[in-house]
Amino acid sequence: MTSFQPVAVPGEAPPPDSVAPRDSTPDAPTSIGRLNQTIKGFIERWGSVWVEGEITSWNVRAGAVYARLKDAHGDAQISIRIWSSARNRMPADLKIGDHVVACVKADFYPRGGDFSFQVSAMRHVGLGEQLERLEKLRAQLRAEGLFDAARKKPLPFLPHCIGLITGERSDAEKDVHRNAELRWPQVRFRTEYAAVQGDRCVPETLAALKRLDAAPEVDVIVIARGGGDPQTLLGFSDERLLRAVAAATKPVVSAIGHENDHPLLDDVADLRASTPTDAAKRVVPDVGEQRAIVAQLRSRMTMRLTQRISHDIAQLEQLRSRPALRSPDHLIRTRTQDVWQLVSRGRDLAQRRVEQGLLRTAELRASLRALSPAATLARGYAIAHTDGGVILRDAQQAPAGTPIVVTLDRGSIGATSTGELAEGPTTATGTSDAGK
């Protein structure tokens, strides 16, 4: 059996509890696999231990959950792995930010040299300190209406210039630029660099936001960074930054982390993008899609115009095919004879009516003349009447001494009645002494 000797380091004595193969020398070094196996054997002698901490990462994969625990009273962290068999015995609502106690056992993977802890049990202690603060801030901002959809500003259809706040030489910047330029090659950016984690994150982001919001050429602002555990994303849940974003005059897009990351900036921003790549797709329209839409609309418009023109042409041809429009003077020609006949009949009727009227007038005139007293007087007769105009028809109406008026054919004479005469032969002029 091979004996192990501590690795000789010039000027230092090997530690008494070293697990390194003790027979290794610079001329005969041990292999990495042998070293890892030695470490694994040493670690396997450790027992399980209960630890308290806050879940800062929680990724569910096939067969296991890979997570990280942060010391509840410091910055130390460990990586943990929970197999599905153990996960089934734990609370189903475990998530990032939960304050928990877990039974962990150290595990070393010799092939990759990875060190982690396997979890056999875990239970809640309460909300993590950070999560508790964030939940209180979330409730306060929601009560103030900063999450309301009504206050969120719409994004422009095609921004002339996009303001980008991100880390210098970061993958997020490359993703936004690349995907935006693929969708719309003429897109322009104004990029303001800021620390995306740590103490400088909030003040630098605030300053960059202020500059971009005041720039007249910027139409929309994107705040982007890659993924990370909740600890590194805390700056994007800072109240100062959240209120500045809410007060910005231009729409702000939050593109922080990956799909599962959810800082409070996502709720306050006018639009939440799941990733920086998604932000580029949401802010900039796809030129290919727009061209396809324009082509489709042009095709539809051409089809509609063609149909309308064809319909109007058919109607026009139908109207032109009618006899009245095909030969407009035909109706006049066919009606000319009718008009001439009607005019001729009207003229004949009018002439006959006039002739009948003249004949009737002559007859009435003759009758009137025959019945007129003037005709009688013209034949030598006279009309005797009193001064009152009463015509005398009986001699007794004019006793002797009665003054009378005698109307002749030409003029009238006055006379005085001598009374009724005895009957006897008379002359045509009478026997009266009228006029004496």
Strand order of the largest sheet: 1-2-3-5-4
Low-pLDDT residue spans: 1-18, 427-436
Report the CATH superfamily of the largest domain.
Succinyl-CoA synthetase domains
Number of helices, counting only DSSP H or I runs of 4 residues or more: 12
* Radius of gyration, in angstroms, nearest whole number: 64 Å
Secondary-structure-based class equals alpha/beta
Instruction: Kindly report the CATH topology of the largest domain.
Output: Rossmann fold
| Helical proportion, percent range | 25-40%
| Count of discrete domains | 4
Largest sheet: 5 strands, mixed, barrel
> How confident overall, as mean pLDDT?
84
Q: Please report the distance between the alpha carbons of the first and last residues.
A: 204 Å
CATH hierarchy, class of the largest domain: Alpha Beta
Shape: rod-shaped
**N-to-C order of helices and strands:** HEEEHEEHEHEHEHEHEHHHHHEEE
Supply the CATH architecture of the largest domain: 3-Layer(aba) Sandwich
